[in-house]
Specification:
Blueprint (H helix, E strand, L loop, with lengths): L2 H21 L7 H14 L5 H10 L2 H17 L10 H5 L8 H12 L15 H20 L3 H17 L1 H15 L4 H20 L4 H7 L2
């Protein structure tokens, strides 16, 4: 893989994280396009997560399907009564279904340390699945910028931040989150989406834990 190929790889990787993040928002008319971009990006990255995304896309047929998925999204992730599959990391990491626990504050601290603040329009807790996946997107964009400037020290730092955050946050609680979805979902849509998310996170974490990635990218130019 030469330098430009590596940049393309990282760009697509960032877009996968962003599209996964948007997939957990309230479903709208554009959800089919998001899933299509996900399928394309995962295919380029040769990820096993592509298969469940293809299955997720196959469920979207017609207006009634979208409305059914919107109802499912609200029932699983929003409430207002019981919340079968809370999309917050602290619920799974704190051990007592605790919201806004120490792990939430840790995630927020990492956002701030990386120069990122949550938008006022974002009304969820900082450890919402969408926020954590969006943060990975941001960290990869910062990595790409440092790669283009050939700053190897910055590149290493952004990659280490990705590895540590993925390991300590979504990589730690995504399997449990997926299990609650598989247990409580009435439709297959979010079952497949959660499976794809878990697979991609595991694959990506394995790559990030390897050594020499930034050096390889710089030396390929």
């Amino acid at each position: 893989m030469n330098f430009n190929e590596f940049l393309q790889h990282e760009t697509l990787r960032s877009e996968v994280y962003r599209n996964l993040a948007m997939s957990y928002d309230r479903p709208a008319e554009g959800i089919g396009d998001i899933l299509k971009m996900l399928e394309s990006g995962l295919g380029f990255l040769v990820s096993e997560a592509m298969t469940p995304i293809i299955m997720t896309r196959s469920i979207l047929h017609g207006k009634s399907a979208l409305e059914d998925i919107q109802v499912e999204h609200a029932r699983l992730f929003v409430g207002p009564y019981s919340l079968p599959s809370p999309p917050y990391g602290s619920v799974y990491l704190e051990g007592e279904r605790l919201v806004m626990g120490p792990s939430t504050m840790d995630a927020l601290g990492r956002y701030k340390a990386a120069g990122l603040t949550l938008s006022n329009r974002f009304k969820e807790a900082p450890d919402h699945i969408s926020a954590e996946l969006e943060f990975m997107y941001y960290l990869i964009l910062k990595e790409i910028d440092s790669l283009r400037r050939e700053n190897i020290l910055e590149t290493k730092d952004w990659i280490l931040q990705q590895r540590d955050f993925l390991r300590d946050h979504p990589g730690s609680w995504m399997p449990s989150f997926e299990q609650t979805i598989k247990q409580h979902a009435q439709l297959d849509f979010y079952k497949h989406l959660a499976e794809a998310t878990r697979i991609f996170i595991i694959e990506d974490l394995e790559v990030l834990e390897q050594s020499g990635v930034p050096e390889m990218a710089i030396n390929c130019k």
